[in-house]
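User: These chains co-purify. Model them together.
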Amino acid sequence: MSGGANTPVETLPGQPPVGEHGALSCGKELSFSPGAEARFARLLTRYPTKQAALLPTLWIAQEEWGWISREAVDYVATRLGLSSAFVWGVVTFYTMYNRAPVGRHLIQVCTSISCHLNGAEEVFHACRKKLGDLKPGQTSADGKFTVVEVECLAQCDKAPAVMVNGDDHARITLENLDAFLSELK
Amino acid sequence: MAKVTVDGRTVEVPDTTNVLEACRAAGVDVPHFCYHPRLSIVGQCRMCMVEIEGVPKIQASCTVPVRDGMVVLASSEKALAARNATMEFLLINHPLDCPICDQAGECKLQDNAVAAGLPVSRTVEPRRQFPGYDRTSIGPHVIADMTRCIQCTRCIRFCSEISGTGELSLIERGGHAFVWTHEGKELDNAWSACAADVCPVGALTTKEFRFRKRVWWLDKARSVCDGCEIGCNVSIEHRDRVVYRFLPRVNLAVNDFWMCDYGRFRAEELNGNDFTRPVLRKAGTTRETHWGEALDAVKAAVDAAVSKDPASVLVLGSARLSTEESWLLAQLFKGTVGVPHVEFHADLGPERRIKNPAVPGGWLVGREAAPNSRGAEAAGVARAGKGSALARLLDGSYTPDVLYVADAEFTSRVSDPEFILALCRAKTLVVHGRRTNLLTDAADILLPVASLAGKEGTFVNVLGLVQRFQLAIVPPPIVRTDLEVLLHLGKRWNAFDPQWTAKAVFERMKGTVPGYAGLEWDSAGLVGNDASASPTSAYDVLLERRLANPAEILAAVAEAAGTAGGEK
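Assistant: Joint model of the two components:
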């Protein structure tokens, strides 16, 4: 993400434009809904320290708001008694926390070896072209789709595999791609 | 205790020591970046690799505790190869910008590259860039340049473990990782410049010192910060009669490895004298004069007042004077002249704090904004409290004929016109001054004096420790130190000899001043000069040893250059 001289300059999964490493603002104060609050309270009972509950708490935040904004970082940091910088460091360490808003359908195409051998690259590029020539990580204008390339989804026996939000979809090929995408619409 | 053998030398160290410190105790300095004696051990720079007999793999010496009978090979071929490889990895992405980098000369990476690295680089790839995160302000005192960062995380650990403010974190991962704050926050705490101190490279530098002076030109004097009563040990770094910066000196009893930003950035205030000659003001006329006339005028005014009533003279010392100066003030005015009112006032607050595990509670707290109220009291100058002559002067119930102020900056209230008006009720106002303020403007007799950097003497800090400070820069001609002013003034009553030095005064007073008995000038309070406690000493020694044979290094360079040429 540093835009280093030998790094291909592209936007990465659910992440802000290249060169933007700081947390983006969502422009409003955040707090957990009652449902998230209850999950958070249960969560805290399962870990020896509050710091240990950071990753699952960030998951709750991402499920709640769709992505991790600057305000979400501050909120989680306050709730767990950590510094905002530490929380942001953890968010940026992992790739599955979205650092910018993503579409309603986050289409994650696996291009690891089994899927690759079964034509996942073509599927990935066809997929993003069909949805409006999106760049990897870009969200379509109607806010419905974001297409990203990911590593192994543990579906090698059903390659090429695609995950949409939390759901697995197996054997997505150029032939059935249109049908698959139309279901999402 | 454990007996450890390092490169054939056996030392005995406590069981809790790590191998790196044991090596240092044995006189072998293992190069390192991330290890710092006061920060948690992370073992992530991989620079301090050593071989330990009986352990198959080489070990990061900072992470391994000693064992009795351990045999460490700190300079074996295997260890040196590992360290060279680490250096080469670090230098893949480190810019070769030493000529424009302010850390050059005190950079651990540079030192280790010279001492232990390969003479030429094998990389041809462009170096990693951090657009937007290079040469960027990260806080009120610190500029960050992430292209130079080697991810040792010392600054991050300083902020989370010492200052406890946690502003910094490692953002991103792997080769893209860099140190920064959370968006919208700054590296802003009371000790933020210490984060730049612990930075082994030029990734964090202080704005105040940046590009002011190459560090190898700087001369150093061991001094004591006069910002508060803690009395942090500092090195006054100066050149050509200009003070450029303070750096903390390690003193495990007082400031440990740290100092606060407030004290640190007082350094440049020590420069400059607004007055080059004594000034006499009479009936609206102001003229510069020579010391003889000025001091004669002081004596005449004091004598005239004392012959009427000794209580009509008020002498205000200061908690910013050295104990020697306070002692002279008390001896002269209380002893020889017989003035009853010799007092000082020290401002309270704001509170300064320094983290030090040797102090109960873990924090050393300074409440008084002056370094030496304990020394002034011990020397016989009374603290101005309720009912003191100063208090009565301020409430209007007492008007002295002569008011002698031995420090024009003894309180922050000298910028308060009402306060000055009260002091001006004295018929003759004598002031020791360096910088123009309302008090020096009001003085009838103004005596130009040197700053802390131009003096030597001792302070007694909040713990009651006597700490000596050394002369850094010779004051400008004609300007005198407070000590010299008092000696020359005392000579007019045949009390002192102007030839006395601070040391001579120290010797005279140490028998009678509480806390000074048995102290020796040469050793008094220079604890902070214990070089073995300094984290930088390792590199000095290393360099000295490695550079002892320049021919060897030149040969290595020539050989490497020859090989590189042959490959083309």
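The longest strand of chain A covers residues 105-110.
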